[in-house]
Amino acid sequence: MPSASFRAVGEHFARLTPSQRYAFWASFLSWSLDSLDFFLLIMCRTAIAKDFGVPVSAVADAVFLTLVFRPLGAFLFGALADRIGRKPTLIINILCYSAVELSCAFAPSLTALLVLRALFGIAMGGVWGVGAALTFESLPREGRGVFSGILQEGYAVGYLLAAALFGLLFNGIHIGGFSLPIGWRGLFIVGAAPALLVFFVESRVEESPAWKEAKLRKAEGRKEPVLPKLKSYAPNFIFLVILMSAFCSFSHGTQDGYPTFLTKECGFTAGMVGLLGIVYNVGSLAGGFVFGTLSEKWGRKRAIICAALLAIPIAPLFAYGHSPLWLGVGAFLMQFMVQGAWGVVPAYLTELSPGPVRAILPGFAYQLGNLVTSRNLYVQDKLAVRFGSYSPVLAGTVVVVAVTLAIVTALGRESRGVELEAV
């Protein structure tokens, strides 16, 4: 099955024009590097807590604030993208999150870091919706599920890069007798590198054809405010928020606390935690490819439901493995399913969103889902203290959230193959 998925990816990419490929890669890379910046903090939670002399659970507030402010970013940048275009908004967005990430490296206190992570949340919140609109309005309808699976796994690529950088650089660069300490602050400086992506976007990426068509049609018409447009799509919007709340619980519930579980409870070194992070993010990539491709044959709903339910029997291995090998196998399989379900999301949400609000509605719903579940890591930390272990918390999260996601998805409508109209 994976080999068939990879063949499908190659076939669909071969049919794209250069401008379509550039649009896709701009969105993919902007989401990947945004994810890198988010997960650098996840990987460094223990070190940040030690540096500021606070409990690890206190640093969870940084994750909480990022998730809380992401809906604001989705709304602001989505509205901007519907007004001035997808391309210029994406450039502004990349520069914003890169600048904030660099600032985090020089935070003098935990309070300052929390403020900066809230600002990072605003910047991070805009990227997904703007990038998805640019991508799916530029690409052909055929193979949309395949590209969805790849695009969403930019999130896993970012996590993989964060794990690799943490494992390789956190303890410093050692060359002969020379040693250069890096630590968490040095990693945040490296995390500002995505700013360089704007040169590629500016020089190679074209504006979305659908947005340009809509702009021409509305040139003589009256511009509608954003909020009334959103209100007219309220039933669809509410469903998407509920759906994305389940999705966000599925991903954050299996990812955000896992490095802490491996570090504090399993006693693994930074190198081992980084290696396992790479392993399970490879699983994420494979899952997104496979289920994104399957959604072209099965439909979006069936692919999501299958991936969600298949995560349940993996939960014991994922949470109770007694060695790096078995934990690695469990985490690989878990993220294969978690990100397999997520691989369908960019296409599914874009297809369910009307043209006039396509840059704002999917991203806004996605980030409101993050807001609903923003206390997930805090609750997991507290439950782990109560139970004396992360294992039952991680396993229980998988079962409850997977069943919930399957039920909510089943209540929605199928969208495979719909046309993405301009207005």
TrEMBL record:
Stored InterPro entries: MFS, MFS_dom, MFS_trans_sf, Sugar_transporter_CS
Domain of life: Bacteria
Membrane topology, as annotated: Multi-pass membrane protein
Name listed for the protein in its UniProt record: MFS transporter
Keywords tagged on the record: Membrane, Transmembrane, Transmembrane helix
Annotated TM spans: 22-42, 62-81, 90-108, 114-136, 157-176, 182-201, 233-252, 272-291, 303-320, 390-411
PANTHER family: CARBOXYLIC ACID TRANSPORTER PROTEIN HOMOLOG
Principal location listed in the UniProt entry: membrane
UniProt subcellular location: Membrane
Major facilitator superfamily (MFS) profile domain segment(s): 23-416
Species this protein is from: Acidicapsa dinghuensis
